[in-house]
Specification:
The chain is of the alpha/beta class and about 450 residues long. Helices cover about 40% and strands about 25% of the residues.
Length: about 450
């Protein structure tokens, strides 16, 4: 009998499957890039090339960061405590004009290191120079969906829109067969993209059968601007352009009324919730409980480090659960199990990856993390879902496996030289300071 590649045992396995199966204790076997077998108790003797002892901890699917701007890790703390439009127009957009591919490559490597160390195995990114971001994700061994941000105005990467669409199409073709990196078409938002841009972006996504991703209804300022310009609310505007549909992934969706939530559900639009960013920028509280009640796939995202300021999905889960409880004045809203599903299987469904990842099941990709529970803040443990959402933090993750490859072992990243990345990041921060002063 051939040995399995990885055997994980001596842990509680939270499968996050449709039945919410828990194997306590449980074991899990990996062959190649897939989960080959799992079960309760101890497995019969089997030879494994690599044996991981969970030491009584929790084994669960790798977390999924549904929306971020990875390279903005180099802007962390740059312009805090400002309104979104002021933050964008007077700080972020001006600094971004100076960026190059190496800057994005460095920032994305830094973000990948942070995400791996905090249990994220998949992320969805929207930014500039995304070819360099894809290269960084490949180096890190992370699963991702990436897309070059498209605007009406010239980009510091590709210049005018025609070149931007061509750049995006080239990315789609270049990474079409990669096992980890996928490409989406990503116009920035309705207030930075003309109807013609949005329609052409949608046509490009349709032609290559890839997702269309954009920011939507994040602030009242944005909503009012679209109403003033087009005489329609943002969702109505998208519907009039023929863009609403299951291909669309909408980030934020803060300012929606009941009719608009129904519209999302009726058209199969998927949503990524970014509570910490929405709180920090005082954008508002998205009606996520209503979306979930209507069957909308809602994932969880951190947004970028310039508006959060970290990429730790454990703190994002904690925030998501508590924010909606106090907003609705209802302690039962957004229970721990629901929120953990947003960071795992529902996040995968929102990104269209639920056939591959998001739950631990035989035949699915081996994207797995192990959480050490032998810590004061996690002892004793009565309910594992509650512990993960309300008590655990990213630093409690001891092992991360992506596509059947161990990328972190005992808190040490195996795919990246962390010290080199930190040195590069500090060097690029000097450039940021000079750009601000220029």
């Amino acid at each position: 009998m051939e040995p399995v590649d990885i055997l994980i045992e001596n842990g509680t396995i939270l499968t996050m499957d449709e039945e919410g199966t828990i194997l306590e204790p449980g074991f899990l076997m990996v062959e190649g890039d897939r989960i080959s077998r799992m079960g309760g108790g101890c497995p019969e003797p089997v030879e494994a090339k690599r044996h991981l002892d969970a030491k009584g901890g929790l084994v669960l699917p790798g977390l999924i960061n549904g929306h971020t701007h990875a390279a903005m890790s180099l802007f962390r703390g740059l312009a805090d405590d400002l309104p979104l439009m002021d933050w964008l127009n007077h700080y972020i957009f001006p600094v971004e004009r100076h960026m190059d591919g190496d800057f994005v490559h460095t920032g994305t490597l830094l973000a990948c290191a942070e995400m791996i160390l905090s249990g994220t195995t998949t992320f969805c990114d929207m930014y500039l120079f995304e070819g360099d971001a894809a290269r960084a994700a490949g180096q890190a061994g992370m699963r991702c969906i990436l897309g070059e941000v498209l605007y009406d105005f010239p980009s510091p990467n590709y210049g005018d829109l025609e070149k931007g669409l061509a750049y995006t199409e080239n990315l789609i073709l270049e990474w079409a067969r990669d096992p980890l990196v996928s490409i989406a078409v990503e116009p920035h938002s309705l207030f930075t993209c003309s109807p013609d841009l949005l329609v052409r972006a949608h046509e490009l996504a349709q032609r290559h059968d890839v997702p269309l991703i954009l920011h939507l209804s994040e602030t009242t300022t944005e909503v009012n601007e679209i109403i003033d310009k087009y005489g329609k609310k943002p969702l109505e505007h998208l519907r009039s352009l023929g863009i609403l549909g299951p291909r669309l992934i909408a980030d934020h969706c803060v300012h929606l009324d009941d009719e608009e939530v129904d519209m999302l559900a009726g058209h199969g639009v998927r949503v990524i919730h970014n509570p910490e960013s929405n709180m920090k920028l005082a954008s508002g509280v998205a009606p996520v409980p209503d979306m979930i009640a209507r069957g909308i796939a809602v994932g969880l995202g951190t947004d970028g480090c310039a508006s959060n300021n970290n990429l730790d999905l454990f703190t994002e889960m904690d925030t998501a659960a508590k924010l909606h409880k106090v907003h609705r004045m209802d302690t039962t809203v957004m229970d721990a199990y629901t929120v953990l599903r947003m960071a795992t299987i529902e996040g995968a469904r929102a990104l269209g990856l639920d056939n591959l990842i998001g739950s631990l099941e035989a035949g699915k990709k081996a994207d797995i993390i192990v959480v050490d529970t032998q810590r004061p803040h996690l002892t004793p443990m009565y309910h594992p879902y509650s512990h993960l959402v309300y008590a655990a933090r990213g630093q409690d993750v001891t092992y991360s496996i992506i596509d059947g490859r161990v990328v972190m072992e005992n808190r040490r990243i195996l795919t990246l030289d962390l010290e080199e990345i930190l040195a590069r990041a500090r060097k690029r921060s000097e450039d940021v300071i000079s750009w601000i002063r220029s």
